[in-house]
Write a structure and sequence with these properties.
208 residues, four-stranded mixed beta sheet
Length: 208
């Protein structure tokens, strides 16, 4: 008599080095982290490459090693993904102004403005008049732990040339001193003669 023997041939487990921890930035997808090691007898891939890496911190996602040999079982591994905050940059910062008697405040835009993000403003944010060297300020992203960003700058008001109007003319006598001349008063400042000493000529003269 013949005896039929039924048996099952199981696939051989695959043997490969585990995937090391991956680093990511908030907002990335797993498909951005495809730098798996190259292996001659198979390939690593994410189970769901379109998945976002998640919030800042440590998250886990499944990666699959698919052998070239169909007789070998694929390997599934939970891969640790360490997610860091995404940086928001401060753009179009305006912090330098020309003096005009008005108060001026810094202004800026953000590279993006996600929900929950606020900007903490410290230091001097506005000025009305010239301050030597200016004043410093700092802008810091807060309110959402998935984002970071900071900017430190100087607010400055530049001096401007005074509007003194018409150059003054005056009449004096021969032999008097320049210091004795009464210069006109102006609402934005005062005129002062640089020339000193005694007036030694008669007629029209130009002085400094």
């Amino acid at each position: 008599d013949e005896l039929d023997i039924i048996y099952t041939v199981e696939k051989k487990p695959s043997v490969t080095d585990p995937i090391e921890d991956r680093n990511a930035i908030y907002g990335q997808k797993l498909e951005d982290l495809l730098d798996f090691p190259e292996i001659s007898d198979g390939v690593w891939s994410w189970e769901n490459k379109d998945a976002l890496v998640g919030n800042v911190g440590t998250n886990y996602f499944r990666a699959i090693f698919t052998p070239n040999d169909i007789n070998i079982t694929p390997t599934i591994q939970e891969v640790k993904v360490i997610v860091s905050p995404k940086e928001i940059t401060f753009n179009n910062v305006i912090s330098t102004f020309n003096y005009d008697g008005n108060e001026h405040r810094i202004s800026y835009t953000l590279s993006e403005n996600p929900e929950g993000v606020i900007v903490v403003e410290t230091g001097t944010l506005s000025l009305t008049e010239y301050v030597e060297g200016g004043e410093t300020f700092t802008l810091t992203i807060s309110g959402n732990s998935n984002y970071i960003g900071t900017y430190t700058g100087t607010i400055m008001i530049n001096k401007v040339d005074p509007n003194m109007g018409v150059i003054p003319t005056f009449t004096t006598r021969y032999g008097e001193t320049y210091e004795s001349i009464n210069m006109p008063v102006h609402s934005e400042g005062t005129w002062n003669l640089i020339d000193t000493g005694i007036i030694t000529q008669v007629g029209n003269q130009t002085v400094s």
